[in-house]
Amino acid sequence: MREDRVARTIDDRSVMIYHVVYPYEGFAKSARTLFRLVRRAQAVKPGKNRKLFLDIEGHRNSDGGFDADMLELQNAFLLGFLAPFLSEVRCPLVALRNPGPQDDDIPLELVIEEPEGRPRSRYGAAVSKTSRAPSGRP
Question: Which of 16, 65, 75, 107 has the fewest CB atoms found within 10 Å of its own CB?
Answer without folding.
Answer: 65
